[in-house]
Design goal:
CATH topology of the largest domain: OB fold (Dihydrolipoamide Acetyltransferase, E2P)
Strand order of the largest sheet: 1-2-3-5-4
CATH superfamily of the largest domain: Nucleic acid-binding proteins
Number of helices: 9
CATH architecture of the largest domain: Beta Barrel
Shape: globular
Strand content: 15-25%
Order of helices and strands: EEEHEEHHHHHHHH
Helix content: 40-55%
Radius of gyration: 18 Å
Number of domains: 3
Amino acid sequence: MIGSLRGKITLKTDKFIILETGGVGYKINVSPDTLSKLSAPRKSSEQNGALASFWIHTHVREDAFDLYGFLDHQELEFFEMLINVSGIGPKGALGILGIASIETLKKAIGTGDTAYLTKISGIGKKTAEKIIIELRDKMGEEKTGTSLQGELDALEALKSLGYSQGEAREAIKKVSSSFDTNAKIREALKILANK
């Protein structure tokens, strides 16, 4: 199995990158958050892409051999925990990782906050409950869910101002979780205004 890869990014799409290493181009599925952190060649034919290193999860099925790449090992470990939950596949886990920071996701799971997981990620209630049941012990119990409620309130406020759930979610993800709800909304609006 492939554990990590380092090479040049020769193509970057909205779901995957091609990483050339040793004369071989590997198609690596990555989260939207990871894509936003990568620089890429200006043209798909350009061979001077940016150097990058990825921790790799190799997913083998009867009909496919897929690679999933992560910039940091903690993200890989969390991804592997998610795919061990029944009903969550690699693409679903990648989607979940794209919605919030790992710390926020762990807090939501640790507090048993199904509302946060369903409202933010768009996964169903049964799937959210499954994730919580199967992973809660691994996350540790959290004492409070107030910051999660603040994120939900900020998300609703941004949606009421006309932003899509995706735009609002991406902006909130970039705001510090230590801010109160009003500060989160203000910072998210600044981020959205600079787009």
